[in-house]
Amino acid sequence: MTSPDGITWTERTSASGSTWWTSVASIGPQVVAVSDTNGAPYVGMYSPDAISWTQSTLPATNNWRCVRNNLSTYVAVSDSGVGNRVMTSTDGINWASQVSAADNAWKEVVWGPGVI
């Protein structure tokens, strides 16, 4: 859904039907969303305007819980998978799997100046 004022909302069609979208983030006009196992397949989606969405393929079939950005890179974390619970993208379309520090149940990622 989108809203120009936080009061009036318009329903939008997602890029992947009934997928359970868990998190959304944006860099400039590009908006991305990630999903988890409650809605197969394990996909992402992106939009230049938060109205028209296009599906993107994620590098691992994990439960993607959170996506954030640091003004130039999207970072997503997962609570499932082995050694691949982090992924990154500079455009929100093409994602690369990263080696996670540990196979913990990652739920959030936070950005601060100079740190992801």
Compact overview of the structure:
Helix content is 0%, strand content 34%. It has 116 residues and is mainly β.
Structural features:
4-stranded antiparallel sheet, 34% strand, globular, 116 residues, mainly beta
How would you describe this structure to a colleague?
This protein is mostly beta strands. It has a domain at 21-98. The protein has strands at 21-27, 30-35, 43-47, 54-57, 64-69, 74-78, 86-89, 96-98. Strands 1-2-3-4 form a four-stranded antiparallel beta sheet, with no helix packed on it. It has a four-stranded antiparallel beta sheet with strand order 5-6-7-8, with no helix packed on it. The radius of gyration is 14 Å and the shape is globular.
User: What portion of residues belong to β-strands?
Assistant: 25-35%
Q: Quick one: biggest sheet?
A: 4 strands, antiparallel
Using DSSP, what is the number of strands?
Answer: 8
Please state the average pLDDT score. Answer: 85
Terminal Cα span:
28 Å
Strands side by side in the biggest sheet: 1-2-3-4
Please report the number of helical segments.
0
What is the 3D form?
A: globular
- Report helical residue fraction: under 10%
Q: Helix and strand string, N-terminal first? A: EEEEEEEE
Using only C-alpha atoms, the radius of gyration works out to 14 Å
How would you classify the helix and strand content by structural class? Answer: mainly beta
Taking pLDDT < 50 over at least 5 consecutive residues as the criterion, the unreliable ranges are: none
